[in-house]
Specification:
Glucose Oxidase, domain 1, Enzyme I, Chain A, domain 2, binds phosphoenolpyruvate, binds magnesium ion, eight-stranded mixed sheet, Beta-Lactamase, alpha/beta, 4 domains
Length: 774
């Protein structure tokens, strides 16, 4: 029972995260509830501005009724639910004195009516109505379950922003700006920020701005809670900035005279009382120190820019520079990160590089919220492997979240609660407990093999990057390590590791893998993974530029060093070597020659290695797909890198939140290409693994298995869920579904069809067991 509940609650969160706007969210929620609980009608009525109950979404009643059915609170059974503020179950509704019939709605056929109030935190929002054809399909015993669902829908509506459109849940307005002409200040409020959940789990902690990524663009006019405190913060920041400059001037080494003069001028400006007083005045109007600073700096910049004298005009950039320095101190940029991680912490930033995430990884780092970011960026991949909940694309986060705020981050729905009320804190604690219970249930499958209901075995592998990921491999019962991203340990270093250092690290991985096959991928840097010690060119399109195998082939000695280190650990286990981002036969020929030459080097040194080490490539570029028949003759195996393959097929940058909605592995082109690769590999008898984030998504996993893929590799935490899911899948039916999908030309249609298929597969677990026949 708990399981159904948690899954439905999670699904409702997911719906909220995926959809924008009340109508679509409600439509999908009623659909979900109706399907999951096998009821004939599920409708949501919300109180509109005229205090009438208005039908907002329905499954089962005729669609034209949406928006057309309205009733006063004193009318109908639905109104009665609100009057009583309690669930109401009525068998044979027309016989009830409060029954009100709406012609054309189609509700005459239904024999049972169950209404539940939608209320959140003493705020009455509307009514959830369940109706069934059969008289006994819903009974008193079902009320607690539906009440929980109603509670979740109400919370989702209130906090998911859906009701924002109806302006039901706006916070208190801040004080009016002093002059009507000034820009409208956004109210500070406790509430929610909404983004895309990309690394599951719930995190709770204090907000900490991510240093270096925040400039004035991210600061919006915001109301402060305590002007006295803001003045103090401003004074401290000014003092720290003056000190910083004094240090720079004192340590004049490396500064030419002109630079020193500029710094001195900056210092004088910092001591200027008018400048500081202007900021103070703004703080007295209840703005935060950051937004007051931004406003005044902006005014000064404008004034300087308008001056006739070119020298003075140029001083505008000095003011900007000083402002940025003060801002950095206000945001605490000069504090050592480790000091800041004294308590449970949620990092807030525009974006975070994989390198920063590795560097800042910390016991107390509980979650990350970004205003930008891409679903399959390497920072997201790392966050998953660190099991740190992450939300990206929360574009308005800087308007609401201040450093030090208490946050709850839901890495699934993408909701970030800023200073949430106790009821939300409790709800999330409860959900966390339920998730733990679910983990325990899935953990029983750990030693079981992953197989479909009709007996086909699937090897479920883990993608790893750091040594610590090996704990997850064991915790989640991975069969193999389908992808070891060797660049991750390179990210945290100051220079390239030597052959010896790499061999020691790879040995640890292979030994800890305890006989599981380990596919070690050579360096895949560039794109969004930059090494501080490698001079990367500034590129317009880094994903189309100096990246991956191209870097390795250009940096011959580094490449050969890594290959030798990998070869050295090959006798210690089932080790395979893999080359990323191959686009031509020439590249494969070249890497195979280098591999042979480095085997020769080891042989001449008398160092042991596996002469037959399987060597494979990643197929992640459309060109490689087209020439796969030639490539396959030269390799032992392939791995399909869906993260890149999707971005290159669809021309959608995997890291760009602006086009995130276009990044979809269910695009018919992607499905066709992957099916083609799998089929060709099977024909040629080459092992094929599908990795990348899509492999952890049950919908994609289902299709991949149907295509004939028997090896998937994913973030380790996704393995138990996939195993549990595949055990309910009939391969025969999956193949039939795939054939049907292949005839569809539209991503949304495929998505919808697959959602129905997955819901059907999970139906065996749905509630109540006695289904109503439609
Ligand atoms: C991929 O592209 O799918 C892949 C697994 O490699 P990465 O995410 O490291 O680019
Ligand atoms: Mg890739």
């Amino acid at each position: 029972m708990e399981r159904h509940k948690i899954r439905l609650l999670a699904d409702i969160s997911a719906v909220t995260a995926e959809t924008r706007g009340t109508e679509e969210t409600l439509k999908r929620i009623v659909d979900l509830v109706a399907k999951r609980f096998h009821v004939d009608v599920c409708s949501v009525y919300l109180l509109n501005e005229a205090e009438e109950l208005e039908l907002k979404a329905t499954i089962g009643l005729r669609q034209p009724s949406v928006g057309a059915i309205r009733m006063k609170k004193a009318e109908g059974l639905t109104g009665l639910v609100l009057e009583k503020m309690a669930p109401l179950l009525v068998v044979d509704p027309p016989s009830h004195e409060r029954y009100k019939h709406f012609a054309g709605s189609g509700e005459e056929t239904y024999q049972t009516f169950l209404g539940l109030p939608l209320a959140f935190h003493q705020q009455v929002l509307g009514v959830l109505v369940i109706q069934t054809v059969e008289r006994d399909a819903v009974s008193e015993a079902d009320i607690p379950v539906f009440s929980t669902i109603a509670g979740q829908i109400a919370a989702t509506l209130a906090y998911g922003g859906a009701l924002n459109d109806l302006q039901k849940f706006a916070g208190k307005d801040g004080p009016r700006p002093a002059s009507g002409k000034e820009e409208q200040k956004r109210p500070r409020r406790s509430g929610i920020v909404r983004g895309i959940g990309v690394s599951r789990g719930v995190a709770e902690g204090r907000a900490l701005y991510l240093r270096g990524t925040i400039g004035f663009e991210q600061i919006h006019p915001a109301q402060s809670r305590d002007p006295g405190l803001e003045l103090q913060r401003l004074d401290d920041a000014f003092r720290a900035t003056r000190q910083e400059m004094a240090n720079l001037i004192e340590d004049a080494t490396g500064l030419v005279h002109q630079e020193q003069a500029i710094l001195e001028a900056h210092q004088m400006f910092l001591s200027d009382k008018t400048f500081r007083n202007d900021i103070r005045k703004r703080i007295h109007q209840a703005y935060t120190a950051e937004s007051a600073l931004k406003h005044v700096v902006g005014q000064y910049v404008e004034r300087f820019r308008a001056m006739e004298d070119p020298y003075l005009r140029e001083r505008s950039s000095d003011v900007e520079d000083i402002g940025r320095r003060v801002l950095r101190h206000l945001l605490g940029s000069e504090t050592e990160p480790v000091q800041a991680f004294r308590e449970a912490t949620i990092l807030i930033g525009t974006d975070i590089s994989p390198m920063d995430l590795v560097r800042l990884r910390n016991e107390q780092l509980k979650g990350v919220v970004l205003s930008r970011g891409g679903r399959t960026s390497h920072s997201v991949i790392l966050a998953k492997s660190f099991e740190i909940p992450m939300v990206i694309g929360a574009s308005d986060l800087f308007e609401f979240i201040q450093e030090g705020d208490h946050l709850i981050v839901d890495g699934m729905s993408g909701l970030v609660f800023d200073d949430p009320p106790e009821v939300i804190v409790d709800e999330y604690r409860r959900l966390r407990n339920e998730a733990e219970a679910e983990f325990k249930r899935l953990d029983l499958l750990r030693e079981e093999r992953a197989r479909t209901a009709d007996g086909t075995e699937i090897q479920l592998g883990a993608n790893i990057g750091l040594l610590s990921d090996l704990d997850l491999v064991k915790k989640y019962g991975a069969d193999h390590i389908g992808l070891y991203r060797t660049e991750f340990p390179f990210l945290a270093r100051r220079d390239f590791p030597s052959e010896e250092e790499q061999a020691i690290l790879y040995e640890k991985i292979v030994v800890a893998a305890e006989n599981r096959p380990v596919t070690i991928r050579t360096l895949d840097v560039g794109g969004d993974k930059f090494l501080s010690y490698l001079d990367f060119p500034k590129e317009q399109n880094p994903y189309l530029g100096w990246r991956s195998i191209r870097v390795s082939l250009d940096m011959d000695e580094i490449f050969r060093t890594q290959i030798r280190a990998i070869l050295r650990v090959s006798p210690l286990g089932d080790v395979r070597i893999m080359f990323p981002m191959i686009t031509s036969v020439k590249e494969v020929q070249r890497v195979m020659v280098i591999l042979a030459e480095e085997k020769e080097v080891l042989r001449s040194r008398g160092v042991a290695y596996d002469e037959k080490i399987p060597a494979g490539i990643m197929v992640e570029v459309p060109a490689a797909v087209r020439i796969l028949k030639y490539l396959l003759n030269r390799v032992d195996f392939v791995s399909i890198g869906t993260n890149d393959l999707v971005q290159y097929i669809l021309a959608v940058d995997r890291n760009n939140e602006k086009v995130a909605s276009l990044y979809d592995p269910l695009h018919p082109a992607v499905i066709e290409v992957i099916a083609e690769i799998v089929a060709l590999c099977r024909l040629k008898g080459k092992t094929v693994t599908i990795c990348g984030e899509a492999a952890s998504n049950p919908v994609c996993g289902y299709l991949f298995v149907a295509m004939g893929a028997d090896r998937l590799s994913m973030n380790a935490a996704a393995i138990p869920v996939m195993k549990d899911f595949l055990r309910k899948v009939s391969l025969k039916e999956a193949k039939a579904t795939l054939e049907r999908i292949k005839t569809m030309d539209d991503t949304d249609a495929i998505s919808e069809h697959m959602a129905a298929v997955i819901a059907d597969i999970q139906r065996e677990e749905t509630y109540p067991a006695r289904a109503v026949h439609r």
